[in-house]
Amino acid sequence: MLPAPATTPAPDPAERIILALDRPDAAAALALAGAIPALRWVKVGLELFSAAGPAVVAELRERGLQVFLDLKFHDIPATMAGACRSAARLGAGLITVHGCAGGEALAAAQAGALEGAAAASLEAPTLLAVTVLTSWPAERFAHELAIAEPIPAYVDRLAALAASAGLGGCVCSPLEVAALRQAHPQPFALVTPGIRPAGSATGDQARVMTPVQAIAAGASQLVIGRPISAAADPAGAFAACCRELR
Hints:
The chain is globular, with a radius of gyration of 18 Å. α5 (77-88) packs parallel to α6. The longest helix is centred in the middle third of the chain and has 17 residues, at 103-119. By secondary structure, the chain is α/β, with parallel strands linked by helices. An 8-stranded parallel barrel has the order 1-2-3-4-5-6-7-8, surrounded by 7 helices. It is 45% helix and 15% strand.
């Protein structure tokens, strides 16, 4: 009798969810993270980093959490290289840069991140190119930015730039995930904000999906904020998202 074929265990749902710690100070952010014992990943964005700086990243890592440093660097190549070099020394697992900075700047950012991690004897972070923010509806995107290319095509263009520059993935809305996954198979990461569990308010997000829909489309990880952080019971809301993904 032949042995049963080996199977790959399904990813732990808790590893797929990145909680956005969109709080005005370190104490509030750490309290939110501490209220969810099963939490694995957290996002430190512009609001929290501007208030608390690198120290909050260090504290989160000391608590055993993995950090998505979402600062969306966008500048000339030398500046992006330096910023990513410094960010990588903080030990973040994921770092964002804007894809529209262009291929030269993206390649410089990637090189800087590798140098920074090596200098600190840390594992290299995955750089993610931000494509089009999930708050942009198609009509405003075309009118205000004077970009005639439809959002899906523009997202595809920036994802291809990121891949060519050696980045490990991109950030996109869940609506673009399926097409991008066909063009960029694993291990290229597709991290998606704009995630709203069934029945949740969309808020300021224009292009959204439920957690199950986004993962089924090919997303690697999901950034979820207010549906968990604004819940009366954040730990319960996090657990509900994990159950939905199972």
